[in-house]
Every structure is written in structure tokens, then in C-alpha cells.
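Posted in: Structural Biology > Protein-Ligand Complexes

Title: Requesting predicted complex, glutamine in pocket

I'd be grateful if someone could produce the C-alpha cells for the following input. Sequence and ligand are given below.
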Amino acid sequence: MAGNASASDRPKVGVLALQGDFREHLMVLGKLGADAMPVRRESELAAIDGLVIPGGESSVMDKLSRIFGLAGPLQARIASGMPVYGTCAGLIMLADTVLDAINGQQSLGGFDIAVRRNAFGNQLNSFETDLDISELGEPAVHAVFIRAPVVESVGPRAHAFATLADGRVVAVEQGNLLGTSFHPEMTDDYRFHARFLDTVRANAS
Ligand code: GLN
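-- Reply #1 --
Done. Output follows.
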């Protein structure tokens, strides 16, 4: 699908705004020089060069995306190669396979991964840790996990981008798709958003 190439220096980036912490992503993307806008309907989807799917509750986001008639158009844009960055529930929305989904829960798919929802259980609902991520260099990324999923298997089209000390995968990349189990938008380290915007600019030009 044709991008809005003339604005590749200030790319038009949508944030799926059905539910969840979309406002934080809009703020980060704006700070990084993107023309960031909430997306709730199909017409808004047509105007963007890239999309962030925020954290929140994936089962609710899934239901709303289908009620609003956005799921099909979103899947079409993902299949056409639009850059998408999903955090936490957003990563679940992008996963081809969702483990521990609620009854009837679907995902948009596209990412060749299986994720397990709420993988850290009740005792460790939320935690913070530092991740060494070679592609991002120094310093380590301070990662905030909130009822987070974990990437349980990474298919041949995707690759692990970050792991916990015990080896569990918490960030993945696959072509124009990027996903994190954690929430960079809740810290002041915007390297993941910057990496996503680099992909958006490269794709739009
Ligand atoms: N547990 C939530 C879900 O399944 C994700 C939590 C989050 O996005 N912080 O969608």
C-alpha cells in the first residue's frame, strides 16, 4: 500500500486507541518528531505510515477491534507490510498464536510467534528489570512489565530481540514488525519507539 512518502521526515503514525495506554504512546511519538494520531476507525487507518498497538487488555482490544470493523483492515495493512510496534497487549494482538487466551479471543496475527498471556502469574504481576540488548547498545534498557506476556516460541520468520536473564524472550522483531512484552512508553528511554520510527521512515520513502 502506498505510504505518505512526502512526510517521511515527520511520518504519520497512528496509535490504536480503542483501549489501553495509547495516550502515553502518542506523547512519546510526538516527542520523537512523528505526526502521531489516535486510530479508532478504518478511515483513520488509511492515513498512516505505521501503527503502535498499546498495552491494555488484549481480549477487550480484540473485541472492540472487531466491533469497530477494524480487525480486517488492520490485518490487511499488516499483511501489506505496514510497520507496526506492539507493546504488551499490543504484542498479543500481533501474535499468530495466543496461549491462555480467554474463550473466543482472537488476534490480528502477522508475527510468527506464540505468546502466553499473563505469563508471570499472580505472584509477580508487575516488575521492573534491566535488559542488555546488543542492538540497542548501552545503557541497559529499564523494562517495566505489567501482567506481561512472554514469547514462548519464535518461528523462523521472527527473531528474539531481547531476553530475560533466564532466557525467556520478551522482545521480538520480524521485518517491519516489532514487539515488546514490556512498556517503554512508561519510562523515558525511547529507543524502541525510535527504532520503530526508523522503520516507518525507511518504509515510507
Ligand atoms: N495481561 C494483558 C492482556 O492479556 C496485557 C497487560 C498489558 O498490556 N499491560 O492483554
